[in-house]
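Team,

Forwarding the record for the chain on the shared tracking sheet. I've put the sequence and predicted structure together so nobody has to dig through attachments.
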Amino acid sequence: MRYSDEQSFVYSQRDTQISRFKAWVLLLVPLAAILFQVYIPLFFQFLAYLELPLIVTVYFALMRRSPIGGLFVGALVGLAQDSLSKNPLGMFGITKTIIGYVAASVGLRLDVDHPLIRLILGFFFFVLHQFIFWALSRGLLAQQVPFETQRTLVLGLLNAIVAVSLFHFLDKLKERA
C-alpha cells in the first residue's frame, strides 16, 4: 500500500490549515462546558454522565492542530474544572493536559472533519480520559477505585454521540478565512 492510497484519512498539504476561532468562543465555550458539568447534574442527575469539558478540550485541540496549544487548552480547562469540583486540585488538570496533547497530535495526522472519525475519536478519548483518571487516582492518591470497563464503554459511546453533534455545532463558530 502506497502512502498516496490513504488520502481519505490523512490530510494533504492543502488541508492542514489550522482552524481559527474568535476570542469569545475560546473563552465562553469551555466556561459553559465546565459550568454545565458542575451545576446541571445537581438538577438533572441523568446528565451527570456527560463529560462536556473533555469534549470541548478534544474539539479545540483537534481543530487547532498544535500539540502545545492542545496541552494549554487541556491544562486550563482541567484546572478550571478541578477548582469547581470535589476532586483534588490537579487531577482533571493532568488528565485533560494529556488528552489535549494527544488529541492535537492526532489532529495533525488524521482528517478529523469526517463524522465517523469524530465518533471514533470521541469514544477513544473518553475511554483514555477515564483510564488516565483511574491510574492517577490509584497512583497519586492511593485510592482503591475499580475501573468499571462495561460502564466506561457504554458512557464512552454516549459521550461520542454527543461529541459528534457538539462538534458540528462548534464548526459553525469557526472564523471564516
